Please model this.
Amino acid sequence: MEKEISRLEEEFQKDLSLVKSREDLEKLRIKYLGRKSPINQLFTQITHLENREEKALWGKNVNSLKEKISSIIEEKLKNAEIKEDRLDLTFPSSQVYLGSLHILSIVNNSICSIFERMGFIVIEGGEIEDEKHNFSSLNIHLQHPSRDVFDTFYLDIPEGNEGRLLLRSHTSPSQIRVMEKNKPPLAVISPGRVYRPDKVDASHSFMFHQIEGFAVDKGINFSHLKGVLTYFAKSFFSSEVEVRFRPHFFPFTEPSVEVDVSCIICKSKHLGKGYEHKCSVCRGKGWLEILGAGMIHPQVLKNCGIDSKRYTGFAFGMGVDRIAMLKYGIDDIRLFYQNDIRFLEQFYI
Ligand code: DAH
Model:
């Protein structure tokens, strides 16, 4: 019996050295102290001994082995519990990264909300258009260079009644879609992606963003256009900017203009003649072109079933990427599309 006791103790020490987890400890406890454990079997053997003194002696020895094993296991279990529950306040916390809207979305939303304040409503058009809505109804004739395959992404889909399908090259078809289906008075702003097969460089991307806006009603005139765009420019850039309207040509507006704001970076317009510094944003010109606009061509109204004798309207279109670049002094359009968090996080809100 003596041998058996010391063998058991050795075996227990060996098993104990292999314990790696709380679960292992639990198994060890069942193996050595459970109902079917070898220690319990020893107790049964003792009951079969004849001699009372021997019974007492072995009973005491087996008992002390049992107590030893049980106190070792208890102790270990307690330590394991403490380890599991311990809160290490020096441990670095797992970092939580909060996202934000993309800078183009931020700029897009803030432009739209300025027009919404003036009563315009937002209506988004589709990115796949046909030739009728992207060109013909906008008075862009068949020979116009923008209709060339080098300037528009045509889709490889059989041509329908309204011409070939294409990825819209500007947001102006939104005007047509809205005017075909709705009667004036209308004041609509229409943001979205546009596509052109331009070679990608610091100022060109094959996909970029525009915002189209237009209003149609009785008695709309050029002063309304000037008022609306001046309010926009002052709200978006700064109340100090000046706005300039330069004559231009667009097939869908007559008269047409390009609109500039005084340079928000160098403000050289305000420094007068003789100011030599070449600003990297306006290149010393003092003015930044921000959009194209004009009075909607009567033929365009007619194309949409609106009586051009009773109604007039104005329209404008701007590039969101370009405006964001001007406002924040960003010199490469590709930065918007590279998903480089170091660039994007500068604009987190
Ligand atoms: N669609 C023109 C472009 O992509 C921008 C534009 C100019 C829109 C004048 C207009 C406008 O509505 O009146 O270059």
Summary: The longest strand covers residues 207-217. The longest helix spans residues 52-85.
